[in-house]
């Protein structure tokens, strides 16, 4: 990964210094810089934060420009918030603990399909390796599988043709992108 | 057939979730699980409904073990519908049902399972009982407490 070497040299860091920062051995870092092995997602997030570049830039994704760092990459919209009437019983609507979302697109196939209704329990806490709903500027817009890592979170669609999105702890604190709750149920009608 | 049902004032119904539906004579035996699903008037108006927990992996990835199906009680189904069906007194499972040329074909979603074809006529006719048609799938993403 030539970019990693360039970025390290631009900061006048030695391999040992960067390896220590990323929490790996110097030989591991050397392998990453040569492109012999792939960086761990945790290290990617740490390095992207340190050098203030996007993950795309770091891994040499050609379409991605260094300028992208100023924007937070958002997960593609795959849900639309809908009224809970007729989905949740009136008593549950009154408690206001759940959101109802209509799934659009194929990004969560094969488990979750277009037209399904997702019921999300609003909560600040969520588990790693679960499916959560994300809001951007308080509009709920995506269901994503979340993995917690030391320095942030990695979001992915279940359909492998869609890209990963990573957020550092710092970006999550900005509250522009927020995890609103965890998926508890998917409903699909047949008749 | 369904012994427990509570109806609240808004037309919403609480229906029992069966852990298993076991075909037996003279009637089916339902294994209670002590959990309920609440269904809207739109579904309960269609007729008598029950809920059943899905077991096994034959309908993956559409349905995984622990998911719940809302079933409209019926003794027959249309070609290609998803139904809860029991063969020769075995436990009821969810399958897509096709009837053609005197045969009944039960189709799993998972490619790991072959279609099951049964004769509906003659001496070797199978005893195929349809217990209902699946009208809604409720995939559960919080399954730990349902581990069998």
Low confidence ranges of chain B: none
Mean pLDDT of chain B: 84
Structural class of chain A, by secondary structure, is alpha+beta
| Sheet having the most strands of chain A | 8 strands, antiparallel
What order do the helices and strands of chain A follow?
HHHHHEHEEEEEEHE
Taking the sheet with the most strands of chain B, its summary is:
10 strands, mixed
What is the CATH T-level topology of the largest domain in chain A? Umud Fragment, subunit A
What portion of residues of chain B belong to β-strands? Answer: over 45%
Largest interface: A-B, 20 and 22 residues
Q: What is the rounded Rg of chain B?
A: 15 Å
- Residue share in helix of chain A: 25-40%
In whole angstroms, how far apart are the ends of chain A? 53 Å
Q: From the alpha carbons, calculate the radius of gyration of chain A and give it in angstroms.
A: 19 Å
Task: Name the CATH homologous superfamily of the largest domain in chain A.
Answer: Umud Fragment, subunit A
Number of strands of chain A: 8
- Name of the CATH class of the largest domain in chain A: Mainly Beta
Keyphrases for this structure?
heterodimer; A: 191 residues; alpha+beta; 434 Repressor (Amino-terminal Domain); Umud Fragment, subunit A; 2 domains; eight-stranded antiparallel β-sheet; 8 strands; elongated; B: 148 residues; mainly beta; ten-stranded mixed β-sheet; 10 strands
Compact overview of the structure:
The complex is a heterodimer of chains A (191) and B (148). Helices cover 27% and strands 29% of the residues of chain A. Chain A has 191 residues and is of the alpha+beta class.
Q: How would you characterize this protein structure?
A:
The complex is a heterodimer of chains A (191) and B (148). Chain A is an alpha+beta fold and 191 residues long. Chain A is 27% helix and 29% strand. Chain A contains 7 helices and 8 strands. Chain A has an 8-stranded antiparallel beta sheet with strand order 1-2-3-8-4-5-6-7. Chain A starts with a helix and ends with a strand. Chain B is 3% helix and 48% strand. Chain B has one helix spanning 41-44, and strands at residues 6-7, 13-22, 29-39, 49-53, 68-73, 81-87, 93-100, 103-107, 116-119, 128-140. Classes of the chains: A alpha+beta (191), B mainly beta (148). Chain A binds chain B through residues 86-87, 89-90, 92, 110-112, 130-131, 182-191, and chain B through 8, 10, 12, 38, 40, 42, 46, 61-62, 72, 81-82, 133-142. β8 (177-189) of chain A pairs antiparallel with β10 of chain B, so a sheet runs across the interface.
